[in-house]
Amino acid sequence: MNKVIGNFHVAPGRSYSNGNMHVHDLANYWDTPTSERGHSFAHTIHHLRFGPQLPEGLIKKFGAKDMPWTNHHLNPLDGTEQYTRESAFNYMYFVKVVSTSYLPLGWNSRLLNQHETGDESINLGLYGHASDGSVETHQYSVTSHKRNLAGGDDASEGHKERQHARSGIPGVFFSYVSF
């Protein structure tokens, strides 16, 4: 399997390519007084997944309160809320994605060849769900970082020793690598 690296983001300003770089023209954004910007990069991630949704039965089984060690099978960013009043704030999420196969008990590997060519009868929304009960999808883990672009420390977060430079692009950024 090839390693896939990518990113996606929500950021202000007109975006364009300059050479091989994706950049944002932030001149108008920075020239607008803070009181007139009228927004921040506070956000809620309702749902983020890579690949097909697991069947409801598996989600209930893996997410049961009496089995907390199985939470890694769910989407860790689901329901994440970040709040700030600052319009010059940066949130970064670093995501590691791993291909995952869920196979039912008694699954027979001889059936694999039948599914490699694809099943033409799979309905839209069931991609990755084979007729033998297996599910091909992805799991991910995430670390995050947030900072005020004015610089300073993280004393309000309990980390006064953590210093930030004064610069950057405001927005919400996701950087991912798939193995």
Placed side by side, the strands forming the largest sheet appear as 1-10-6-7
Structural class: mainly beta
Task: Specify the biggest β-sheet.
Answer: 4 strands, mixed
The helix-strand sequence is EEEHHEHEEHEEEE
Strand content: 35-45%
Fraction of residues in helices?
10-25%
Counting H and I runs of at least 4 residues, what is the number of helices? 4
Q: For the CA atoms, what is the radius of gyration?
A: 21 Å
Mean pLDDT: 78
Describe the structure.
7% of the residues are buried. This protein is mainly β and 179 residues long. A four-stranded mixed β-sheet has the order 1-10-6-7, with no helix packed on it. The termini are close together. Helix content is 12%, strand content 38%. It has helices at residues 27-31, 34-37, 56-62, 112-116; strands at 4-10, 14-18, 21-25, 43-45, 80-82, 89-102, 135-148, 152-154, 159-164, 171-178. The protein has one domain.
Key traits:
single chain, 179 residues, mainly beta, 4-stranded mixed beta sheet, two-stranded antiparallel sheet, 4 helices, 12% helix, 38% strand, elongated
SSE blueprint:
Elements: E1 4-10, E2 14-18, E3 21-25, H1 27-31, H2 34-37, E4 43-45, H3 56-62, E5 80-82, E6 89-102, H4 112-116, E7 135-148, E8 152-154, E9 159-164, E10 171-178
Parallel strand pairs: 6-10
Antiparallel strand pairs: 1-10, 2-3, 4-5, 6-7, 8-9
Write a concise synopsis of the structure shown.
Helix content is 12%, strand content 38%. The protein has one domain.
